[in-house]
Design brief:
It is a single chain. The protein has 404 residues and is mostly beta strands. The protein has 3 domains: 18-177, Sandwich (Jelly Rolls), CATH 2.60.120; 184-333, Galactose-binding domain-like (Jelly Rolls, Sandwich); 349-401, no CATH class. The protein has 5 helices and 23 strands. The chain has helices at 120-123, 335-348, 351-360, 365-373, 390-397; strands at residues 12-13, 18-19, 28-32, 56-57, 60-61, 66-67, 77-95, 106-112, 131-138, 144-148, 154-163, 167-168, 170-177, 189-190, 199-203, 227-228, 238-256, 267-273, 287-294, 300-304, 310-319, 323-324, 326-333. Strands 1, 14, 15, 17, 18, 19, 20, 21 and 23 form a 9-stranded antiparallel beta sheet that branches. β4 (56-57) and β5 (60-61) form a beta hairpin. The two termini are 40 Å apart.
């Protein structure tokens, strides 16, 4: 490595999951059967639920969650959520915080994968393939109800059913982003973004706010919406380690200290590693991407990368400590990764969505069924030969560096 300073031991580790439904990623509550006491949009508020007893409005006590009226007829309540980033779901948290005598007795969670931007009415059509990912299960009140999910398909929407009625504070849909290759223009993307599947794996410190916010796709709203560490007395640095969404060559580095006016990092240095697994923070595999460089408070900085080489991981060192709102790592995905991402996406599609994709690509019904049933396909073997599928093959394999 170019620098000889000591890198701190890892202190703050993160799960390999992101909240696919988060408003930070653009998740939305599309519709609900009822929201008499608590608005459905509360379910996806990024912050934990809060409640002030005795605070009443025209509809009763004001709650921080989704709460329906008491049912006096058969049936159950439900809510439809569009994920901000489609992906494979690993767990769901049905959070009933502060709902003690008014939470649902049980819940069920289903998911679907669909093309385009369907309306709530279209999503509830009988033709939509809703797949149960959490069977009807008992809920406890005033707490987190986490349900692990083993289905490996890629989903775009979820439906939460509450039996028979009641209140739920928050809904978190944890998983891993599976990027749609049609959304990549083949030129330059933010390789670190959560929107594409990038992840902050660990950081040296998250005393005030977590480094996991650094790669959110939006802009920071205030100083609490960024990474801030405690004050170091040993000269630093603090560090954060990123797993890129896909292996790529970084061209530009964006470091934004927005809202950090008196506590921004004074300097940063960045290093990249082209490895299958994340190297230790002080491993020799790290190569310089940006030499130690001065920062200004409350400023968006854009720097040219010092060298162009494929990276799968990036380490950011912040001197002497951390006060940074966002990090963007702009670059091109390497061709082999583009191809792998295309096949990963196609293999993970639910069957009806795969058939819709094949039909759009020009496949006849029989050929579409044959190809969909032949999944998973290997990038090494290539797509099944069919002269009508040139468009799909180009999309999956990134021909000429493009997906479309």
């Amino acid at each position: 490595m170019a620098d000889t300073y000591a890198v701190p031991e890892r202190q703050e580790d993160f799960a390999s999951e992101v909240d696919l439904a988060s408003r930070w990623l653009g998740g939305s509550v599309l519709a609900a059967s009822d929201e008499s006491f608590g608005e459905k949009e509360n379910l996806l508020v990024p912050t934990p639920a809060a409640f002030v007893p005795g605070n009443y409005g025209h509809r009763g006590e004001i709650v921080d969650g989704w709460e329906t009226k008491r049912r006096r007829e058969p049936g159950h309540d439900w809510v439809l959520v569009r994920l901000g980033a489609a992906g494979t779901i690993t767990a769901v948290d049905v959070d009933t915080s502060f709902f003690t005598g008014n939470f649902p007795a049980t819940c069920r969670i289903e998911a679907c994968g669909v093309e385009g931007y369907p309306s709530p009415r279209e999503l509830q059509d009988a033709e939509v393939e809703w797949i149960e990912i959490v069977p009807r299960s008992a809920l406890k009140g005033d707490g987190h109800n986490r349900f692990d999910v083993s289905d490996g398909r890629r989903f775009t929407h979820v439906r939460l059913s509450a039996f028979p009625d009641g209140g739920i504070a928050r809904l978190r849909v944890f998983g891993r982003v599976v990027i749609d290759p049609r959304t990549i223009d083949g030129i330059t993307i933010d390789l670190a973004s959560q929107d594409h599947g990038g992840q902050v794996v660990t950081s040296s410190d998250g005393f005030y706010t977590s480094a996991s916010m650094l790669n959110r796709p939006d802009k920071a709203r205030n100083m609490g919406d960024g990474w801030e560490t405690r004050r170091r007395r040993d000269g630093g640095p603090d560090h954060a380690l990123f797993r890129l969404a896909m292996r790529g060559t970084i061209r530009k580095i964006e470091i934004d200290t927005a809202h950090f006016k008196y506590n921004a990092s004074a300097e940063v240095a960045l290093f990249g590693a082209n490895t299958e697994t994340m190297p230790a923070a002080d491993a020799p595999e790290w190569r310089p991407l940006l030499a130690r460089t001065r920062l200004q408070p409350d400023t968006r900085h854009v720097f040219e990368a010092a060298d162009a080489f494929p990276c799968s991981f990036v380490r950011l060192d912040a001197f002497p400590d951390g006060g940074i709102s966002r990090v963007r790592l702009w670059g091109e995905v390497v061709p082999s990764e583009r191809k792998a991402a295309g096949y990963r996406w196609f293999n993970a599609l639910p069957s009806k969505q795969a058939l819709a994709v094949l039909a759009e690509a020009g496949a006849a019904d029989e050929a579409a069924r044959r190809i969909a049933n032949a999944r998973p396909m290997s990038p090494d073997a290539g797509i099944i030969a069919d002269p009508t599928l040139a468009k799909l093959a180009k999309m999956l394999e990134g021909s000429n560096g493009e997906f479309s």
